[in-house]
Amino acid sequence: MVVSRDQENYAGREDTEPPQPAIPSSEDYASDPEIWDVILVGAGVAGAALAYAQAKDGRRVLVIERDLSQPDRIVGELLQPGGYLALKRLGLASAVDGIDSQKVYGYALFKNNKCAAVKYPVEGFSEDVAGRSFHHGRFVQRMRQAAVQQKTVTMRQGFVKKLVNPEGGDWDEGQVVAGVAYKTGDGVERTARAHLTIVCDGMYSSMRKRLSEPKIKHPSYFVGLILNNVSLPYPNHGHVVLAKPSPILFYPISSTQVRCLVDVPGEKLPGEMQGYLRAVVAPEVPDVLRTHFLDAVEHSQIRVMKNTELYAHPLHPQGALMLGDAFNMRHPLTGGGMTVALSDCNLLCDMLRPLPSLEDPRATSRSTADFYTRRKPMSATINTLANALYKVFCYTGDKAHEEMRQACFDYLALGGVYSSGPVSLLSGLNPRPSVLVMHFFMVALYGVGRLLWPRPTLKGLWMGVLLLLGAARIILPIIYNEGVRAVFFPALAPRPTGSLARAPSTPNLAQR
After folding, report:
1. DSSP letter at 279?
2. Distance (Å, whole) CA 502 – CA 173
3. How many Å apart are CA 336 and CA 76, to the nearest integer?
4. What is the mean pLDDT of residues 53-76?
5. What is the pLDDT of residue 44?
6. Nearest to 385 by CA among 457, 330, 305
7. Which of 125, 132, 225, 440 could in theory staple to 79 by disulfide, Cβ–Cβ 3.0 to 4.6 A?
């Protein structure tokens, strides 16, 4: 049994199928253009999808990725229906084929030996619209393969060291970003110039502090296990256990494997993980899954990943943008990260498509100036819901909080609009922050009503006041971090700090 605390370092693969071949790294440097249309730093979900889409729009694209072999990680395994629609719009729906992906139709919630099943509200969509769950690495490799098959995409294994200005020197704020300096496997440091550089190098981004002002929190860890040949109580559903002290997730990632993610709150892990899982977590697992869970604790690889919430105030220099986990993350409880990333890819492509060329950095900057605010309806809805649900689902011992926790479970169990509304938000099918806030406080008011029924008492009234205050303390700071104007009034939101005013007469790169 191996415990891995860093998802990039592991002793053995959980995916028992042979990995898909590594993407060949192009070494044909002589064929590189003097100036690329787009350089993408990173070839994860966002980078691979954007490379494919930009090539389809006729751009010459260089993708620089530090490792082109199949990734092996314990998150990024659930694509919500809204994410699948975004993938389909990009022309990449086939990326979920041929990897033993599983359709997901909704969730099953468990609390105190009670269960409630909720479905994705996909009425009116085509039959293929559902969630998808899979081994993350297989999905990413399929996307990379689709991208590299485009004639105008060059994919190269290397490490990007810094951004460069038009003179080839180190980029500094206030200058145009003109490309990157990177080192390839042969140890040679090279410079690549581009009209637009897009940084999407993931949660461990080396460029984050250069292009944004990040605010990072680490609320918990995910401990990952694989359960083999297990039938879930609700096939093709994600299973969420409202356990003590925090949620436990089960969902299929292939026809024979179920992923279990145990949330461990706090900044430190228990000293002896197997003992913690047996003594603290196993009693909270539903009876039908407990034996399989304990068997996985004894025999499967135990992997650990730190969960991250990232609020970043991005800069918007001419010639550069950020995308994906490099500048925005939410608690992975709801599996919304890839949905946000793919939605962002569609939005950015729509904003760039009217430009016949990206040569003029000022014109490109103008076209993409509203990117960080126009993405807010989708990103803020999923971010706020994920972070708020995590806080609600965690057990604190506080009576008012437990009333909110129970009210949330009972509200969803009502079915109808009470479940379809919140689930449409979670799934990315209805990205409307105002609807999210409405449902959040409807849950709180539902909890107050339960406390006052059938006969109001002073104790019940006081507990109701505490419940409402607790709900406000959960949701309002999250909305504040997202940006009140950006969430509810995007047209009034301030644009990110940029260089439009600082370099009014910057010539394009082709003139240099």
Report:
1. I
2. 10
3. 9
4. 96
5. 97
6. 330
7. 132
Average pLDDT, the chain: 92
Report in angstroms the alpha-carbon separations of 108 from 45, 333, 475.
27, 14, 24
pLDDT confidence band for 484 (50 / 70 / 90): confident
Given this model, what pLDDT does residue 503 score? Answer: 43
- The DSSP annotation for 176-202 comes to PP-EEEEEETTS-EEEEEEEEEEE---
Does residue 122 contact residue 426 with C-beta atoms inside 8 Å? no
Q: How far is CA 432 from CA 378, 382, 383, 427, in A?
A: 7, 9, 12, 12
What are the structure tokens assigned to 256, written together?
């024979």
In this model, does residue 465 exceed pLDDT 80?
yes
CA 368 – CA 306 distance, rounded (Å) = 32
Over residues 187-209, the mean pLDDT reads: 95
Please spell the DSSP secondary structure of 99-150, one letter per residue. TT-EEE-EEEEEETTEEEEEE---TTS-TT-SEEE--HHHHHHHHHHHHHTS
Contact present, 74 and 303 (Cβ < 8 Å): yes
Per the structure block, which two tokens stand in for 303? 């992997």
> Confidence class of residue 7 from pLDDT cuts 50, 70 and 90?
very low
Spatial separation of the C-alpha atoms in residues 481 and 312, rounded to whole Å = 9
Instruction: Give yes or no for a contact between 49 and 208, defined as CB atoms under 8 angstroms apart.
Output: no
Confidence band of 10 (pLDDT split at 50, 70, 90):
very low
pLDDT digits (tens, 9 = 90+) for 411-448: 999 999 999 999 999 999 999 998 999 999 999 999 99
**Which pTM does this prediction carry?**
0.93
CA distance 455 to 427: 38
The Cα 484–Cα 418 span in angstroms is 25
**CB contact at 8 A, 111 and 242:** yes
d(CA 166, CA 179): 8
Task: Answer yes or no: are the C-beta atoms of 94 and 27 closer than 8 Å.
Answer: no
